[in-house]
Amino acid sequence: MKFYRPLLAVAAALVAGFNASAADNELTDQEKADGYVLLFNGKDLTGWEGESDFWSVQDGAIIGKTTTEKKVPFNKFVIWRGGTVKNFELRAMIKQAGNNSGIQYRSRELKEVGPFSVGGYQCDIHPSPAYNGMLYEERGRGIVCQNGQKVIVDDKGTKWIVSSTLPVECKNDEWHEFSVIAQGNHLIHKIDGKTTMDLYDHDEGKRSLEGILAFQLHGGPPMIVQVKNVRLKTLPDGGVVSLADMPVPSDAKKVEPPKPRAKKGASKKAVK
Length: 272
Fold this sequence. Notes:
This protein has helices at 7-16, 29-34, and strands spanning 36-38, 48-49, 55-58, 61-66, 76-80, 88-98, 101-109, 118-125, 135-138, 142-145, 149-153, 159-164, 176-183, 186-191, 194-201, 212-217, 223-234, 253-255. It is mainly beta. It has a single domain, classed as Sandwich (Jelly Rolls), CATH 2.60.120. Strands 1, 3, 4, 6, 11, 12, 13, 14, 15, 17 and 18 form an 11-stranded mixed beta sheet that branches. The chain has a 7-stranded antiparallel beta sheet with strand order 2-5-16-7-8-9-10, with no helix packed on it. The longest helix is centred in the N-terminal third of the chain and has 10 residues, at 7-16.
């Protein structure tokens, strides 16, 4: 996702810091009964892997941070090494300031790009309401479904907006619960229990039904992201819905692909 530049906000966050309690990283009795497991112990990065220059644990939270002096050359991630995710529900308490972050899921590691590069589905964590909680495909299709939209991607890869409402808004420099629900080719993102986007992905060549889980540290301007209470519930296999069973409605709005950018230095043809 394109970077965002509120440098005063990120500077304040870096100075003040964020306070997270290690006691937060515990499951409630109801969560245990519902089948959730904790992916982060609140103490260290056991089960996770990322570059120690950028990722650490402080005050019971995973912290990813860049500064003006210490930047990442490309988007880098802290990756959960406990396996892959297929059908699941993920919940995490997150706050962010400065450049945007994201939750990668059903994704793939791109070692050919560089260490800790990841591509695939992303629940965006972004200061702009339209982008916050949207589905962005890192190193792939880009923006797939924005905050407030319900979208169907057909079997040819065309995106159709089925419905659209005002985006769910929140202040990302405060703690909020971000959730991802993935069942077959049906994906839902939520902030504080409110649905931000709803997607059916019928593009078999580009969709993903399984992959790794990670949190993003974005290249560009300084940023900080903090994550705690990372809870995962595995859902039953299956759930892929066909285009025949979930067709594009006749009144859906087609999303036109972006026009290709003109090459730099290209001369305009003379008009006859």
